[in-house]
Amino acid sequence: xxxxxxxxxxxxxxxxxxxxxxxxxxxxxxxxxxxxxxxxxxxxxxxxxxxxxxxxxxxxxxxxxxxxxxxxxxxxxxxxxxxxxxxxxxxxxxxxxxxxxxxxxxxxxxxxxxxxxxxxxxxxxxxxxxxxxxxxxxxxxxxxxxxxxxxxxxxxxxxxxxxxx
Length: 165
Prior knowledge:
Layout: E1 2-6, H1 41-47, E2 52-57, H2 61-73, E3 78-83, H3 87-93, H4 99-108, E4 110-112, H5 113-117, H6 121-124, E5 128-135, H7 141-157
């Protein structure tokens, strides 16, 4: 399970822009505004085949906790993005100087998956869409690998050379 805390910049190293920095946002390395759109980590995880993909925010801790719990229960790779404030760098440079302001900004710019479906693509791209995007059952890597071991062991006990198949 991977849980990524997205605070829109590399806050631990000085507030440089990151792959998730929203377009036009100010960081220590994009003083005139970040020129690229922020990368959607959940879409990447979904495209890579993760059986569980979700996004929550620290504004709604109850929902985030449930999403993380679901990820931990899922067999195989799971991915949860947690939208969180960085008031030290991102917030300060973008007019959100205090934690309550940044939390309100996260709240005001978040929508559920159902609400996002009713928005135009232009409106949706400016929002944090929260919820569970993928929840499917798949055979995980460990199970697949164990099946190979079991098959080889079974064939070896029968005197079958696995390389002759």
